[in-house]
Amino acid sequence: MSVFGDGLDAAVQRSFTRPAPKSAPAQMRYLVRQLKGTRAVAQMLRISQRTVERYVKDQIKKPRPDLAARLDREVKNRWQPQVRARARQKAATTGGIVIDTRARLGYTAPIGSTDESRIRHLTVALPPQHAARLFDAQQAGADDRQLQQITAEALKDVYFQDGGRRAGSLEEVRFTDIEHVEFEL
Fold first, then answer.
1. What's the pLDDT score for residue 46?
2. Which of 47, 71, 81, 114 has CB atoms 3.0–4.6 Å from 51's, for a disulfide?
């Protein structure tokens, strides 16, 4: 499960102007239109072409849970690409992104400081350059660990060092025991 990647996706999906198809037959028809055929959809979902055809014709209405999850994920990944691109562009250029997290955060600092990690609940507005780094890394296929590192660097800059106003030799911020991460555009 990708906590940071899923959180970024959910933030972008909240900007959709129309709801994505909800029923399995409607989702299947949407994917068939997008991929221009039942064979491509069948290969993507790892089911038979005949099964896809039966969903399209409303002969099957309720998929098994693992197929329902794959189907929902694929539809949401393809739904309203222009709206998705506009939301990411706005966050990366003017709007920034807000992170709300509850996690154990620690940092590496000089000897004599209280750098022991502790549970913190932070709601921090990250400026556009940090949002751009997160979205660029996600588009490049970064895994959750890399997205977590980019977020930690952003929190280091914005929260712990107050955008550079708090001079200090804070070297690294690290997440452990993540309970909650949510992004808002």
1. 96
2. 47
